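Table S2 (text version). Query chain:
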Amino acid sequence: MRLEGGQERYCRDQIRLLRSRGHDVRPFYVDSKEIRPTGLMSRSKYFLQAIYSSGSKQTIARLVDTWQPDVVHLHNLFPLLSLSVLDELRRLDLPTVMTVHDFHLRCPGRDLFVRGKICERCCGGHYYHAVSLRCVNDRIDESLLHAIICYISDLSDLFLKQIDVFITPSRFLLRKLVSWGVPPERICVVPHFTDLEVHRSVSDVSDGYVAYVGRLAETKGVGTLIRAASLVPDIRFILVGDGPLKGSLTELASRHGARNVEFCGQVPGDRVKELLGGAMFVVAPSEFYETFGLSVIETYALGKPVIASRVGALAEVVEDGSTGYLFEPGNVEELAEKMARLAADPGQRKAMGRNARDVAETRYAAQFHYEGLQNVYRMALRRRGNRG
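Corresponding structure-token output:
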């Protein structure tokens, strides 16, 4: 995986947390962004490695031999680590847990989202749909590759055979895994966490704008936010982040006369915190199934409310009427109305901000996450011992 973005930021923070509690943690990852296969031979090699990487298998064997870990904690195997890692861990009989961040167990495209809509066509094992719909990067070859990986994963059953405990950050994702055949007794919900000191608001004063932080991608519902922003021209909006839709979203803002929308692009982490801290509130308008909402709890820690779409785990993390508001995904008018309502009521914003900070402190502190991880690791060790 690449050490960038929400999932990867969480992995970094988790490693720091475990090390701060005295654990010896050895990360192993491959940055797939550094791989740019060109030509038939190069792409063929890339595809074969994605299906079954002997290199990753050998590397895992060497790491285990020299280090002898008590537990292996997996996050993401695809595309370059591959199922070979599970195969080798099974041979070595090592206790293994896996944090599930997305829907790769049943979705070649990982997001359950295609052509602007939530899609669950492949969830019954019918992965050929991904090829016809070009779900992965709008390419037939890459969609075929990831469909093949899903078929092999199902046939080999390596995930269920090797993973002792699956970790999900939300109850929503737990329910998805159970519907796909993962035994509920082998799933633990361990919500993500945030550093409450790093993300502490220094002032209740806002600078009179609304913030969005995230990728400018189809799944994130930024188009809905821009359309809603055009209906409330007196409110200023700051969009932080970059992505494949930046050009078309800029054109959309121009077309709708949304001169109150400012695109900031990518900014350093400290600046992101400043922008969140200065906002009246933050909007999370996703239109696909979010499996958690890391930026939401970071916003909570700063004492700011969140308006989010009622979809996936966002409907679980945002408490409607208490820490913010929920709206139906894609509903421009409802989003505009709720943004206008909250922008016009500083007392409500302050009360929701206090509630949000309380929730961050009582549910999403690092200590709670650490205790959850320790429980999972003990479960994995017990289960492996019972299997022996």
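Notes on Table S2: The first helix runs from residue 5 to 20. The mean pLDDT is 92.
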